[in-house]
Amino acid sequence: MISLLSPHIRSTFAGVCLSIGLLGLSPSLQAQEKPLLIEKINPQLYLYTTFNTFEGTKYAANAVYLITKKGVILFDTPWDSTQYQPLLDSIKQKHNLPVIAVYATHWHEDRAGGFAYYNRIGIPTYATKMTNDLLKANHKAQATHLVSTNKTYSVGGQSFVLNFFGAGHSMDNVVVWFPEYKILDGGCFIKSSEAQDLGFTADGDIKSWKPSLARLLAKYPEINMVIPGHDAWKDKGQIKRTEALLTGGH
């Protein structure tokens, strides 16, 4: 099931969860100059956005971090490699807490690209076995620890679950559920409400995506907030938009 794209194609496209032809990007996002944005979701959960450029156009990647009594947990790494350390510095300055763990929701560059850096400076990194196998197969740095899916983890008074509902954007994509807040970090498994298409799917399984999404909705029928992997995240309708795109809607 592993994609056999040539090295040239993979180096160009791997990790790009959004469509290069995306037309719905807001002008303010295209004009964004700050390489790192941090926004508060609630007192314990923050969203951070980093950017990368393809053919002269800048795109955004969303990820979250969780404040616990023991320290901060990152879910996914910055897409921009120049922001690996600045993110840590910003968190330390903002919260006076260290980052104690980094989890990846799948193997692409915008999610696990920072593993090599965080491994080097001694921060524990976590991924599923499938994600680690794909990282290894694609000659990328692997997580130092394996994580189980569909299990509640409790750290410093906070809880989260990494769920795997099946293939979609990638073969290994997981989502993160924060049960106390009923917030879903969908990663690239969930599209933005303004997405124009499914984006990069060469490493995934489009036919499996819709039933995988149905399993997610059966598990979590009540969700207060859904965070997509890319683009605008404050709007509602991300799941409906993802469903529409999977059924050929526009």
Protein traits:
7-stranded mixed β-sheet; disordered N terminus; 26% helix; alpha/beta; 250 residues; single chain; Metallo-beta-lactamase, Chain A
List the helices and strands and how they pair.
Blueprint: H1 7-13, H2 27-30, E1 36-40, E2 45-54, E3 57-68, E4 71-75, H3 84-95, E5 99-103, H4 109-112, H5 115-120, E6 125-127, H6 129-137, E7 145-146, E8 152-155, E9 158-163, E10 175-178, E11 183-187, H7 206-219, E12 225-228, H8 238-246
Parallel strand pairs: 4-5, 5-6, 6-7, 11-12
Antiparallel strand pairs: 1-2, 2-3, 3-4, 8-9, 9-10, 10-11
Task: Provide an overview of this structure.
It comes from Sphingobacterium siyangense. Pfam families: Lactamase_B. Its EC number is 3.5.2.6. The chain has helices at 7-13, 27-30, 84-95, 109-112, 115-120, 129-137, 206-219, 238-246; strands at 36-40, 45-54, 57-68, 71-75, 99-103, 125-127, 145-146, 152-155, 158-163, 175-178, 183-187, 225-228. The chain is α/β, with parallel strands linked by helices. The protein has a single domain, classed as Ribonuclease Z/Hydroxyacylglutathione hydrolase-like (Metallo-beta-lactamase, Chain A), CATH 3.60.15.10. It is globular. The two termini are 28 Å apart. Mean pLDDT is 89; it is low at 1-16 and 18-31.
What's the quick description here?
With 250 residues, this protein is of the alpha/beta class.
CATH-derived topology: Metallo-beta-lactamase, Chain A
CATH class type: Alpha Beta
Helix fraction by DSSP (H/I, runs of at least 4): 25-40%
Q: What does the overall shape look like?
A: globular
Strand content: 25-35%
- Helix/strand structural class: alpha/beta
Characterize the largest beta sheet: strand count, sense, and whether it forms a barrel.
Answer: 7 strands, mixed
| Number of discrete domains | 1
Order of strands in the sheet with most strands: 1-2-3-4-5-6-7
